[in-house]
Specification:
357 residues, 17 strands, binds fe (ii) ion, 6-stranded antiparallel β-sheet, 5 helices, binds FE2/S2 (inorganic) cluster, alpha+beta, Naphthalene 1,2-dioxygenase Alpha Subunit, Chain A, domain 1, 7-stranded antiparallel β-sheet, globular, 2 domains, Rieske Iron-sulfur Protein
Length: 357
């Protein structure tokens, strides 16, 4: 890394879609406050069913609108002097000046919001830069054919460190050596592709290995211990990693015999350069049972297992964050061949970041 390249911990990209929550968290006319990329935002679902998002500062004296309340007609009243705002953010009432014209500029700054496949996304940057960029599809989250578990965690580390972690399975040993990982996973050859997903730059790494022994934990979740396996990790812009693994019994891949799979969404929402909200959704086909105990749903086993696995990742990322904050001095990072996906992902993110500077 040359000294002109930003470190992972320097980066914060505003022109991107970030998950703020799941659809069922946004009740009609209930105010929700979220911090995204150092912006304090307020969201609500209108009576018409649309989720809207604004800067949380009242345009009058910066009082948080999220501390306000709804009045008749779906307008939000600021708790300080009672200015009220409609679902377009326009001020529609000034109690200290009844009957007087309301200036057009008395409005809340608005942010673009998209609700799709059970996820609510916000674009905290310049709306004119959205172009054809859409949030990634997450159809399993709302499909009756899939079961899932969800975890949400506050991480004391830049979200880019989590993206680098998500693109890199060579950390499965030793970091996850007590859970899903084994050293042999790190030497499987990989393919790397870059492209576009819904208008976002994406990087995908895949690995395929036939007749290959799986860790006990993967064999538990995905049944087959001696297996043909396929794994995929895709970075979609700075806000999402999609990861999947499919196992077939050894020799079964070509005929797609008895496939067992999981598909994970990792949503990374920067709070600032030093922290982010991390949400994981582990999806498994309905009816997929534990290999160790076929009376237990695999997704229930995943719930226990991934709590430990993701705690290991978080431990590593928070340690990296601490070390990244030290002055570099003579220190130089050495990337390995196995870091090619990470390097490609980093390039995409660096370019997006530099474009915004
Ligand atoms: S600060 Fe909101 S009405 Fe005065
Ligand atoms: Fe990990």
């Amino acid at each position: 890394m040359s000294s002109s390249e930003p470190k992972a911990v320097d980066i914060m990209i505003l022109n991107a879609w970030y998950k703020v929550g799941f659809s069922d968290e946004f009740e009609t006319e209930e105010l929700k406050r979220h911090v995204v990329c150092e912006k304090v935002l307020v969201f609500w679902r209108t009576a018409e069913g649309e989720v809207v998002g604004f800067d949380d500062r009242c345009c009058h004296k910066r009082m948080p609108i999220s501390a306000g309340r709804f009045l008749e007609g779906g307008v939000v009243e600021c708790p300080y002097h009672g200015l009220a705002f409609n679902s377009e953010g326009q001020c529609v009432k000034i109690p200290s000046a009844p009957g007087a014209p309301i200036p057009k500029r008395a409005r809340l700054l608005s942010y673009k919001v998209i609700e799709q496949d059970g996820v609510v996304w916000v674009w905290p940057g310049d709306a004119e830069k959205i172009g054809n960029v859409r949030p990634p599809a997450t159809p399993e989250i709302v499909s009756p054919d899939w079961e899932h578990i969800i975890g949400e965690l506050h991480i004391k580390g830049n979200s880019v460190l989590m993206i680098e972690n998500g693109l890199d399975i060579t950390h499965f040993y030793p970091l996850h050596g007590n859970t899903i990982g084994q050293a042999a996973d790190s030497v499987i050859e990989f393919d790397l592709t870059t492209g576009e997903t819904n208008g976002c730059d994406s990087v995908t790494v895949t690995r395929q290995a036939d007749n290959y022994p799986q860790s006990d934990d993967f064999a538990d979740l995905l049944t087959h211990q001696q297996a043909d396996s396929y794994s995929i990790q895709t970075m979609v812009g700075p806000g999402t990693i999609i990861a999947g693994r499919t196992l077939w019994p050894a020799g079964g891949r070509k005929e797609n015999k008895d496939p067992k799979c999981l598909k994970n969404y990792h949503f990374l929402t920067p709070i600032d350069r030093k922290s982010h909200k991390y949400t994981y959704v582990v999806n498994m086909p309905k009816g997929q049972m534990s290999g160790r105990d076929p009376s237990v749903r695999a997704v229930d086993r995943a719930k226990e297992l991934f709590k430990d696995v993701f705690a290991e990742d978080i431990w590593a990322i928070e340690k990296q964050q601490e070390m990244c904050e030290l002055p570099d001095g003579e220190y130089r990072e050495v990337l390995l061949k196995s870091d090619m996906a990470l390097a490609r992902g980093r390039k995409v993110l660096d370019d997006l970041y530099k474009k915004e500077l």
